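Record format v2
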Amino acid sequence: MKKILAILLAGMMTATVFAGCGGGGNTESGGSGSDTQSSSDDGGAEVKDANLVDVSVFGDEDNISLKVWAPDKAVSLVKEQIEAFKAAYPEKTFTKIEVVAQGEGDAGTQLMNDASTAADVFSFASDQLNKLVDAKVIAPVAFAKAVTDMNSEACVTAGTLQDTLYAYPETNDNGYYLVYDKTVVSDEQAGKLEDVLAACKEAGKKFIFNCGNGFYGCTFAFTAGVKIDGLEEDGVTQKFTDYDEAEAVKTLQAFSKLMHEYKGTFTSLDNAQVASGFSTGTLGAGVDGSWNTNADQDALKDNFGAAKLPTINVDGTDKQLISLFGYKYIGVNAASQFPAAAQVLAYYLAGETCQQQRAEKLGWGPSNKNVQGMDVVTKSAVQQAIKQQSENACVQVNIAPTFWDPMGNLGNKLVADDTDPDDAAYFSKLLKDTVANVRDEG
Amino acid sequence: MTFVEYKMLNPFQRFAYNFKKVLKSIPKSVGRFFVGIGKAIVKFFTGIGKGFKNYGTTFAKGDWATKLSYLIFGVGDLHKGKYYKGILFFITEVLYILYITLFGWQYISKFGTLGTVQTSMQKVNGIPKQVFGDNSMLILLYSVLTIVITVVVFAIYIANIKDAYKHQVMRENGEKPTSLRHDVKEFLDGKYHITLLSFPVLMIAVFNILPLIFMILIAFTNYDKQHMPPGTLFTWVGMDNFGSLFNLVEGAKKGKTFIELTGWTLLWAVLATFTNYILGMIVALMINKKGIKFKGLWRTLFVIAIAVPQFVSLLLMNQMLQVNGAINVLLTDISHLFGGTETIEIQFLNSTTFMARATVVIVNIWVGIPYTILSMSGILMNIPEDLYESARIDGATPVKTFTAITLPYMIFVTTPQLITTFVGNINNFNVIYLLTGGGPTTQDYYQAGRTDILVTWLFKLSMDTQDYGLAAAIGILVFIVCATISLIVYNNSKSMKDEEAFS
């Protein structure tokens, strides 16, 4: 009896070894890599309209089983859309189309971990595109011409690498803008950062800008003229546009001066604090992302104001703040068992009808030109603010993984207590170091 | 120096003498450590040599069946009537050959290059489809698996030869091989340890040792953001990753980051370990003091802090230390009480290096001492009361009692615990990552902040920038540091040298 017990215990001990050992191997085996074709030779396969394609595109694929990744908030809507999709192709049998919740932020990473068990069709944010293309886990868009015609130029350009369109544009709204309490900041004041801060200080309220996060912190570099310009040949080193160093340093100093002048008003905090700051009444204005719009609106109700980012005065000229602006795309897993069906489904989910439904039900800004003209977009202050900001933005695509940390550091240093805003040499070195760190030099 | 001479020294001289003695003993023990390693290596190779010798002599002495066992597993056993074992040996060989031809060979044959065929794209009537080439990661992974399996099969092969020869000798002596029934019984009796441990050992090999070998090998490849399978291949680069960590040329950020973070990691580990140890001991002593009322209550209060999961307290602390957090609000309110008008906004975690590091150490004290108090209270209650009694009778002062009885006893019992805490603190991911996230950020380091320790840097390198090769190299170096420190300290501790001291 004792021995049996001992065996059981030993078994249990090994069970704990198992715990936490998830994951598994990628199982597709190698094949020969001949017959490489340039995939940008033609406009891709034929389509029927803005949502559907001819059933012949499926080829001999039938008894189709697919997996879709969508963000948590969108899962139920995507499920409805998939029912409609099935009904639109009565000739085909769909054994199973499964929708699994998966955040867009790390869908790419999840896909790269194990492409064989990942979704066939997945939503992701534009900054992961170059990683996915480099790893060759994403299939190019099969209906490139139709998709290019239907969607706004900017997001098609951003989805195009090496002359190939790699993903179906899904939204045109992944950015941040100025939100303010109308009782504190007036619509006119919202145009200038100085006015916004002055108004907040007068009312004894705070202004939040998440400087320490590279996603927001890069605004300072961009506004200073140090803009990103894709990647170098090696596919991982960030390229920057040429910039005037003296001008850039002056702009950074202007930011830093303003932050120090309004110390106590200007605070660098996590974005989660924006909505809670509005609801407790301690916040006058802040810079927040489109995904928090609903929370901000709930907190401010009728006093909710939204505008593009303000300007900052540098040596007498007002400079528009340049933000980072991204898109969301729908991609097709290159390892899909049903490549044609996956492409057709992605085309449908990124099509006009689905974009309209998402704009209405989820408040997502569409990339489809027709939907952009609809009331649901043109009558929304938030959508307009986002649209205006998108015209003053660097596109969040082709971003090196080393980008975020140094940009967050730049924001931190501008706002840090021990930084002297008048020390031009310091800012000059800071800028050089930041660029060098992003480019991973040294 | 004789005992009498020692007794005549004043306390400062005694301290200096003891200090010198400790310092002197360190080189000796380090030397011993390396001599030990050398001896182990020699033993290992002579063992191998002996194995080869036996291999030859057995072949020379063996009959035809034993000789055939060198090629076909189990023949010797089958010939001598040990059927079940012979069949098992034979099956092993068949399975191994099947495994290699059907699966293992395609990976192990590419082990030297980690693959040469790139992934490419193909179009089938307008629909793009990926044609996957070699996947360096899978090649590495399955090669490691194949190598491990080969080693195991080799061991079985040797066992097969030995067994064949053993049965040959038994037959020559007129003995009969034991039956299956007898052998199975043996596994529940004389060989019971094998029955018990085979499954755990197998699982540890599969889930711990295999991945470990895999990770160690990655440190010698250029697996990083530019070489991500399945899209691109990675390959062997020798010691390059280690080279860039020790590259101290002006402007080389990785080397600078590594050296400075190592310094801070060690400083952090020392501070975190000893502040917790000393303060925890003091609080435990206070609670344990005779005449203190409500001992149970005090202990419970401290233990309640443990009831909240550590990561929750740390995240809460992070929030409280923000510029608009509870601590700044509290300080502002207090200053208002005394007529201040300013809002206090101290950047605890985000401004200077010193402030952030000090904050981390202090928060760690707050999070950590309840554990020390718990273990210390237990140890304190275990010190034999008669020791104190005789000290009192001899007229010892409380301070003397502490330094002569309590402290040596505590150090004796807790040295192994101190070592584990120290190593744990070198790898204390939670406190740093959840509290500061590595901040304050700096432009002087590569992907690290001022409070980052090596493990959090490693985490950032692998999760944010996909520098897997570099991260694996750091992991190996951290292991070497931890292992060396632990072995030297433990081997020099009283608990190791003089196990019986206090029993």
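The two ends of chain A are 65 Å apart (CA to CA).
The CA atoms of residues 10 and 16 of chain A lie 10 Å apart.
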